[in-house]
Amino acid sequence: MIRLAARLGVIGPALFGVIVTVLTALKYDFLLSLGWHPLKAPTFDWPSGLALGAHGWIMTATFVFSGLMMTIFASGLRLSLHHSKVTFYSSLALSLAGLALAGLAFTTDPTTLADSTPATWHGRLHDLSFVMLGLTLLPAMILFGFAFRADERWEGLSLYTWITVALALPAFWLKGAAFYVFMLAVLVWSEVVAIRLHSTTAN
């Protein structure tokens, strides 16, 4: 189970990053039509808007699979780290973050239509999932910092985890071009932790 979790932990962030990048390039003009701009309005229906229009199903599937892989990854971390309340709650929070990420598969409502068209049920669920992702992912990382610190095999990642949170937290709420920093920091952290988890299975 730990080996599977480690492999999915490595694949998930890389897959998400690649697909978001490729789809953004392919749907660049479409995103501009939604009001998105890479520098002036980077979070305007992005990356959620990638699930709209042509090839949107690819982003929808990516949300689902990435979220499920994150949830399994969280289970692997729980099994690998020393058993404690901190380990339990950090892995629980990361599992919930994975479910919230999968919940982004509910199609978003284009922001440009918000004033003229009533919100749809799937748009509301998408927004709720985004809020839940923000309320669970970063707290999970903070708690994992303490869990790593209590385990000699992982303690080297404790400070790195907290530094990542310190960079990602402001970027998440600023909603400007700094949002790219948030995404990159979290994806890199996930990869680093997954690689460490994989290394523990080889010992």
Brief summary of the model shown:
The chain is mostly helical and 203 residues long. Helix content is 71%, strand content 0%.
- In one word, what is the shape? elongated
Query: Count the helices. How many?
Result: 7
Report how far apart the termini are. 15 Å
**Sheet with the most strands?**
none
Total individual domains: 1
Q: Provide the succession of SSEs.
A: HHHHHHH
Question: Which class of secondary structure composition applies to the elements?
Answer: mainly alpha
- Number of β-strand runs: 0
Mean pLDDT: 91
Residue ranges: pLDDT <50 for 5 or more in a row? none
What integer value in Å does the Rg equal?
Answer: 17 Å
Strand content: under 5%
State the share of residues found in helices, binned by percent: over 70%
Characterise this structure.
The protein has 203 residues and is mostly helical. The chain has one domain (2-201). It has helices spanning 2-26, 28-33, 56-80, 85-103, 121-149, 158-174, 179-201. The radius of gyration is 17 Å and the shape is elongated. The two termini are 15 Å apart.
